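General statements about sequence and structure are easier to judge against a single worked case. For one protein, we set the task of working out the structure tokens from the amino acid sequence alone. The sequence in question and its structure tokens are set out directly beneath this paragraph.
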Amino acid sequence: MTHSEVGRGGRRTWFPVLLGGLLTACDIGSPLRAATPPAPERTAPVAPPAPTSAPVFRREMPVRPARTAEVQALAEKLEAPGANVEDPCVAPVDNGCARTALAPFFASLDALATGTEPGPVIIEAFGNSLIAGDRIVDVLRDDLSTAFGSAGRGVLLVDRMAPYGGRGRTSASSSGWEPRTLGELRAPPHAFGITGVYHVATRARARSRFTLDGEPRGTLWWLDVPDAGALTISSGGTVLAKTEPTGSGVSRATHFELPEDAQTLEVVAEGQGAVVQGVVLQHARPGIVLDTLGVPSSDASLYGRIDGATLKSQLAERAPRLLVFFLGGNESKRIEWKRLDMEKLRADLRALLLRAREAAPGSACLLVGPMDAVKGPDAKAQALTQRPSLEAVNAAEREIALAEGCAFFDFYAAMGGKGALARFHASGFMHDDLVHPRGAGLDVLGHLVTDALLRAYVETPPPARGVAAVMPTPSGTGAAPSGVSEPSAEATP
């Protein structure tokens, strides 16, 4: 087996090419020969030909974007060594493992690589403000799409979560909407779906316009609140669908087909008070779709505000192959501020993982721990002093993830451990709040996650006869290899 690269939409992608056993020998340039008369029929039975073994698919590191080498060089300059994904076995068999936590996702990547996956491979990324701006997951999305193809944008919002920021994950333009998020101090009046955000029409004719990219169909997620009026979905002046509210108070989904030549899509609220939870736009082709579901100020406790029935229905509709959770930063702050304790953190994180995995039972699961964190500029002389609960939160998240059958990525260790944020700050890659990375610092963090995930994919052998071998220890690293768990002792907060 070898791998070839082909151009696809301006990007390179890779696919396996099977060699051997497919060609018969030919004499090229030899004179024509007379046909050979058939041999006389034998009376003795002829043994059937020995079966040929099926070619073995071998995972190899896929093509990476051109910027990868530059970002890796910056990571090394910042002394961010990276880390391995810990991918625990969730189905041990004899001396091997029938399935690891990430096996469903890795199997989907295999299917994309071999051309046997018929549709999109969807990833749901939940988290706090670290990913809400989308640049960290932009790196993950771009790397995976470069390697395995893209199937479009996925879940979008009708407007931004704040009056600033880009519109990469929202409509191209909008007016008349008020955002509410699960990260607010007081719980908003309506239930949330998996986006953790809803937008309320502040007036009749509130509208959003999306620029289309040839998507064949879409979905509007909306909340059936009393007396809010209908929502109309149209393109080029033609109404594609219209909601039929009953005032039930439950989340609903309206599906619509898009004309082949459609350039834009409009969502319009007929009356004040209509509530939209999201819009889904994607292609039917094989490729990666990564839904960014990050919400500023969120933590595992606040994700409990997602309505259970809506979580189940929307995740069932998305049918993700990987659930990723970026959590821990806000938890470490709230423990320091005495607004949260370790017992509640453990309980809420375990509940979130259980709820999400029950709603998407066929999905793999990955928890990304908190990055390095300091007390912040308000602490004056202690501005770059590490938060005292950070390592305890990190250890607890790792323990719970592995116990609940999720893989774990130690973001703190990957950045370089204690003092990493000070190095990022000294290089100009932290905002003044000393909480949020900026610029190329975000690219480095995204690269650390992506690189670890792709290495875990390559180094974990595909299942043979239903059993995957234990992953070998990568050479030259001190971190525990994926698929091998070390005992952990939780630090005292």
About this structure: The first helix runs from residue 68 to 77. Confidence is low (pLDDT under 50) at residues 1-46, 465-493. Residues 268 and 322 are 33 Å apart (CA to CA). The chain is about 25% helix and 25% strand.
